[in-house]
Design a protein that fits this description.
Length: 604
């Protein structure tokens, strides 16, 4: 009943896409892209190939794999980047450098906007385009925009600094109209910015035709160096012109929902887009009753899925028009507390994203129907087993808690969430224990549960404690104090620290070790422990970063915090340029220069 790797390898399509490797705990340990999923994924399991030590080790931990097909290798590359950022797989250490995927930023919030390269997207009212896969092409395109539309390259505060310095060289070579001198009005300059934005929004045909004509004219006039320059610019713009459905510059949350069906079954595919990035997907198998029309199946799914999920995005992009669209919009808007839109895109990138979801749904329906049924057995089926064992009517959402410390140092707590038998990492929570001195797990657990149950109303169907009678009694005590009543059980371990059974209502209930319910309890217990340990390690690492940043002159607590928030690690801060450091909220060019020089100027 498990995942048969050899059998699943035969089903791989010869199409571009992204593949995700899972270990036995179902954690994602590697994300990769491929021009042909069939050829690339099979290579990992061929003993004759020289894979290297790291890959050889990774392959021994693969319990199953999944994949998402895309329309091009470029889309696969961007999706790979997004998924690595979201899941941070253990064996993707060399692929986690954000600098490989730059953005183009237009500072439309300024009176005289600039066009520049950015390494990160911030909510600063600027417009962002990307991410793009070629930093060189981005730089060439920015240079091209500066030349074509006369966009300034300086960082002067205008109009405040107008007339205080001489115009730069770009003015004298006719590449900038010198807004720094007031030689162009704000309105005229704004028209140039509009043209640049139109270009970045995809209005490429006109400029591509113009560059082609200039290249041909230069070649006919034997001006070969100029012709080569136009050719290079043409190639750069062509790379930028490739549509990228995987990422949106609007930084919005939306779900993309599409389905495929045969006579008996349907598969619904959901793409989850958060802050403009496709971060993951899920699919669901439905049994069709009678002669249900596709739009009826989709409408029924929307009602069932969003009745049980706690997070509602701002927009749902679906495949078909549904009869009760306005009613469902009103219901979802009430649940979210803000307007929710349901749309059926007819053209552009949104339509292509729905088409991509359709293709993946069709792939799952034709190749993975039996595997999905087995997967439901180990997730939803396992939840049903646990509910039956405890005498509960239904379990959809489970929360599990654990405490981590080293000799009482920086005690932390973790809350993990499983919904329908799968981890829901977006709902995980971390707690720094503030009111307990030393290593007191019971008191630490009491503080964490009090904070959680007092401030979040989305209560689970079951709370699972890492431990037995003592931990369960702490949870019951807290619930009595805050007036919340949720079933609580303990995950009991044996002398070898392995899951043994469930403690519920003052009785330890044994579980069949060969059942899916037992395997799910083990996964939940291991995940709660892993998440707590990982958080504790990150805090210790941040303390080390703090100690180094403390030594930088002129960098106070606020800027230290901003740097740690803006960059993932100390190495990222060390390798950042002055411009990248200056883009961190709260930093300016002087402070950025101090940080850069601290790491790069030799100390005498």
């Amino acid at each position: 009943m498990g995942f048969d790797i050899e059998e699943e390898l035969k089903k791989l399509p010869a199409k571009p896409g992204v593949y995700l490797m899972h270990d036995e705990r179902d954690a994602i340990i590697y994300v990769g892209k491929a021009i042909s999923l069939k050829n690339r994924v099979r290579q990992y399991f061929q003993s004759s190939r020289n894979k290297g030590v790291k890959i050889e080790q990774m392959v021994t931990h693969i319990a199953r794999f999944e994949y998402i097909i895309t329309d091009s290798e470029l889309e696969a590359l961007v999706l790979e980047c997004n998924l690595i950022k979201e899941h941070r797989p253990k064996y993707n250490t060399m692929l986690m450098d954000d600098k490989a995927y730059p953005f183009i930023k237009v500072t439309v919030q300024e009176d005289y906007p600039r066009v520049m390269l950015a390494r990160q997207m911030h909510k600063d009212r600027a417009k962002y385009f990307g991410p793009y896969t070629s930093a060189g092409a981005v730089k060439d395109t920015i240079d091209l925009i500066h030349k074509l539309y006369g966009i300034r390259t300086c960082n002067k505060a205008l109009p405040k600094m107008q007339g205080k310095e001489r115009p730069c060289l770009n003015y004298h070579i006719h590449q900038c109209p010198a807004p720094c001198q007031g030689y162009i009005s704000k309105e005229e300059y704004g028209e140039s910015v509009k043209k640049a934005l139109s270009f970045l929004n995809g209005n490429y045909p006109l400029i591509l035709k113009e560059l082609e004509e200039k290249m041909q004219a230069a070649s006919e006039n034997l001006e070969f160096e100029k012709a080569i320059e136009y050719r290079e610019l043409l190639n750069s713009v062509s790379k930028i012109a490739q549509k990228q459905k995987i990422t949106s510059s609007h930084m919005e949350d939306k779900d993309v929902i599409a389905m495929a069906a045969d006579q008996e079954d349907a598969v619904v595919q959901i793409f989850f887009i958060r802050e403009g990035r496709l971060i993951g997907r899920d699919h669901f198998c439905l049994h069709i009753v009678g002669e249900d029309r596709p739009e009826e199946v989709l409408e029924a799914f929307l009602k069932q899925f969003y009745a049980g999920t706690p997070y509602i995005p701002r927009e749902l992009m679906i495949q078909y028009e549904i009869e009760e669209k306005e009613l469902i919009e009103e219901w979802l808007s009430e649940r979210r507390g803000q307007k929710v839109r349901i749309r059926v895109p007819r053209k552009g990138e949104k339509e292509k994203l729905v088409e991509l979801a359709v293709k993946n749904a069709q792939m799952v329906l034709t190749q993975d129907k039996e595997r999905i049924r087995r997967e439901e057995g180990r997730t939803i089926g396992a939840m049903k087993e646990i509910a039956k064992l405890l005498g509960l009517p239904e379990i959809v959402r489970v929360e599990a808690y654990d405490i981590s410390n080293i000799s009482g140092f920086q005690t932390v707590g973790s809350m993990i969430v499983y919904e329908k038998g799968r981890p829901k990492r977006s709902d995980y929570r971390k707690f720094r224990i503030k009111g307990v001195q030393g290593a007191d797990d019971y008191a630490s657990m009491e503080e964490m549960l009090t904070r959680r149950l007092s401030h979040y109303e989305n209560y689970p169907d079951l709370i699972m404690m890492d431990g037995g009678r003592g931990q369960v009694n702490i949870a019951l005590k807290v619930m009595d104090a805050v007036g919340v009543h949720v079933p609580v059980c303990g995950m009991v371990k044996d002398d070898r620290h392995r899951t043994r059974g469930i403690y519920f209502k003052n009785v330890e209930i044994p579980i069949d070790r060969d059942s899916e319910g037992f395997r799910l309890v083990t996964r939940i217990q291991d995940e709660a422990h892993r998440f707590a340990i990982e958080y504790h390690r990150s805090l210790r690492s941040k303390e080390q970063v703090h100690s180094i940043l403390d030594d930088i002159p002129g960098i106070g607590p606020a800027r230290r915090k901003a740097l740690m928030k803006g960059f993932r690690t100390l190495d990222d801060i060390r390798s950042a340029s002055v411009e990248e450091l200056a883009q961190v909220p709260g930093m300016n060019s002087r402070a950025a220069r101090q940080v850069f020089e601290f790491f790069h100027v030799d100390k005498q």
